[in-house]
Amino acid sequence: QVQLVESGGGLVQAGGSLRLSCATSGLTFNSYTMGWFRQAPGKERKFVCTSWDGGSTYYADSVKGRFTISRDNAKNMMYLEMNSLKPEDTAVYYCAVRPPGRVNYDYWGQGTQVTVSS
Predict the structure, then answer these.
(1) Smallest Cα–Cα separation from 15: which of 114, 90, 116?
(2) How would you write the chain as a 3-class SS string?
(3) How many CB atoms lie within 10 A of CB 6?
(4) Are residues 10 and 17 in contact, defined by beta-carbon separation less than 8 angstroms?
(5) Which end of the chain is more exposed for a tag (fewer CB within 10 A), N or C?
């Protein structure tokens, strides 16, 4: 049974930093594509960034240069380092995984709230 659990959210002032963690279990971690998504109040969930099993990464333009996704295959962990945070980064952040050969992210965490005050 695949499980993902996020942690590390909280309240931070604009310009500050946070590091989100995603603990995974029940999957062959190093063969999955990992991703972070976020959902602001009243808005649809949006893509933030992804890390492919080969280690390549891709970011939404809105976070490029400020956020960094990383993964520790030995610990089955995924991270999102967020710097220079802005009020518009306020959202519930979700980690997700996409199994090999699949198009969609099939498994999701429960989400962690990030609030950036101005």
Answers:
(1) 116
(2) CCEEEEECCEEEECCCCEEEEEEEECCCHHHCEEEEEEECCCCCCEEEEEECCCCCEEECCCCCCCEEEEEECCCCEEEEEECCCCHHHCEEEEEEEECCCCCCCCEECCCEEEEEEC
(3) 22
(4) no
(5) N
